[in-house]
Please model this.
Amino acid sequence: MLAIDEKTLNILEYPKILEQLEKYTSFKLSAELVKQLRPTPDREQASYAQNLTKESVLFHSKHNYSGLAGAHDIRPIIELARREGTATPQELLDVKDTLIALRSIKHTFERIQNDYPRLSGLFATITVPSGVIESISRAISDHGEILDNASLALSAIRHELKIVRDRLQSKLQHYISDPATAPLLQEPIITQREGRYVLPVRADFKGRIKAIIHDQSSSGATLFIEPLPIVELNNQNRQLQLDERDEEHRILFSLTSQLANHLKELETGLDALAKFDFALACGKYALALGATQPDLVPIEDIPAPVKNHPGTTLRLIQARHPLLDPNNVVPIDIEFDDKTFVLVITGPNTGGKTVSLKTVGLLALMAQSGLHIPAAPGSTLSVFQQIFADIGDEQSIEQSLSTFSGHVKNIVRILAQADSRSLIILDELGAGTDPQEGAALARAILTYLLNRKITTLVTTHHPELKLFAHKTPGVTNACVEFDLETLQPTYHLTIGLPGRSNAIAIAQRLGMPSEIIESARNEINPQELQSQDLLDEIYHQRELTRQAHQQAESNRKEAESLRLELSRRLENIEKERQDILYHAEQEVQSILSEIQAEARKVRKQLSHAQPPIEDINKVEDQISQIEEKVEKQIRKQHQLTSHQQRKTSQLPKIGDKVQLRSLGTKGILTQMDGDEIEVQVGMLRIRSDLADIIPIIEEEAANEPIALITEPPKTHLPRVDEVPSWEIDVRGKTVEEVLEILEPYIASALYAGLPFVRIIHGKGSGRLRQAIRAHLKNNPHILSFKPGDDREGGEGVTVVKLN
Model:
């Protein structure tokens, strides 16, 4: 970890970043990881953490993830199992829910590991303890009750206990309903005292029923008695209760002991869940901040003969302080060139100098902690070995250290520990003492840091340091600007220019008499006034340039927005055109089917009528010509659709996500051979033609929610590259044979998208028909079924409408 004491972390407000980050966790253990988070000086570790956050941002952007549902902090239960203790039913359910969450996420990332290699890597070596989930599910209900079938012994005990209780209830009910004993009771109820069933009897009738007295009411008016005839049954009931308790304890101990056999798997799985939720919290936080991934670069090792720079990189573009309101904060740009590594910032009080320092320091800490930073893409930082700060505002430093001596004491400590691989941030250097001595000390400190090649940012009010920064190689000026019209700071940071002196101008704006203003000007060296006027002109030109840049950027964004909108509209138009062509083709095919059906009907009628063979041949020739003409038109339409699709849209490539028009199913294009294609849908490979697929653009694919896999698929689906027939003939088969082939046939028809099917079973005795229709009633994918009409075969056929 970085050699940063808590004082420096507090000065740069790092703990507040962790407080914000913790709000995005959904798991107690990940919240603890947030509290332990510290920057690392190791570039590989920092880069890995940055890339992990990048994958988390991508995961959140593409998928609806709501947190670790069902996961619990089961560390106390693991420790209990290690000490050979016994967990409660609820604790075991917490273990079960946590393992289910672990298994679910592990299965999910096994499926998408190519897209998220680092997130998937968290679970690569994790093993879900075998049999634990199943053992707990068999023994404990979702409500935390131990089930009867948790063991054969428990089942037998509870069965016998029910019999004894029924006999007890029956005997006691006899006392309640017997006219001889009913008047003796205070209430006609059966209750319990100390685990034994008793009756409430009026104290006046004490002794009228031979019994054992177990209790009396607070008023003494009611006695709770156990009639002697049921004593033995109560004894049996109590003994069985004790047996039940002991067996339940044995079952819970056995389940806890099973956990003890998997302590390592449980601990590593829990650790993976915590790291996963922590990574996703970093992603959520990055999205909330509008943050980006910075480039982390090593500190270059510059050869000694030409070494005039520590080799550090500091480039922050449109950087924002992460704890300030993003709607009000003014972004800053800070970039050191290859000759600069010390920055001197000047400007008015409350103008944003300290915020600028904290922004740099805090973003460096965040970057080396694996957190994305609120800055524009392209921001680049070196990975510093140490980061030091001395900032004297009341929010960051104790009052005792806000004096000059306190600052000096802190700076002495920093100088003793810092080297060329460090970053030092100093606020109001040389303040709090005599201005002349303070300025001299500040120059000496900067010279010392410059000679030791330490990357440094300082703020100051001493004008001597402006000249020092201007003349000294490796040092550059910067300033926060002030608006003389509004008398308010603009909070803009300008690199390369010193801050202007605004005292006389402000006094004039506030109404200071003109003779005093003029007298003050005469006291100033004329060369300084000329330099100040020149500086004012430079600031004015810079402001005009910035406004022009902002306007150009605004125009660029507007043009890009219009381009995207036009692109979206063109895609929608193309999609509508393809849909129209597709439906037109379907309509033509429907007409062809009707003509073919009519042709078959005509042939049938001709065969019954038996006209001259010449007439039959003539009609059949006409039918064949019609069919050929329609099929030719369909082929032409199909070729036109395929040609225009290639012409107006980019051809899909192997590996693209596509949708099959005919099935409404989405999958991955795995093979192309001319107009023939093959699409992978889950475990299935479906062959079709090129015109049957619609490419899925990335934006659409990204918005599809991802479902966490709770179990691997077990159902063997039928092949869908062979569409089943609309009807199946099962005449002559037994009921068992029919039911065996009927289920896969229905499944195949459903998957092929058939709206209905016909089952030909014949009339016969009706037994086969009844068995088939009874079986169909239990299938949730069947909307309805009915007998065929007279043309289809009446009661000899069942027409099934599919969902």
Observations:
- The chain has 22 helices and 23 strands.
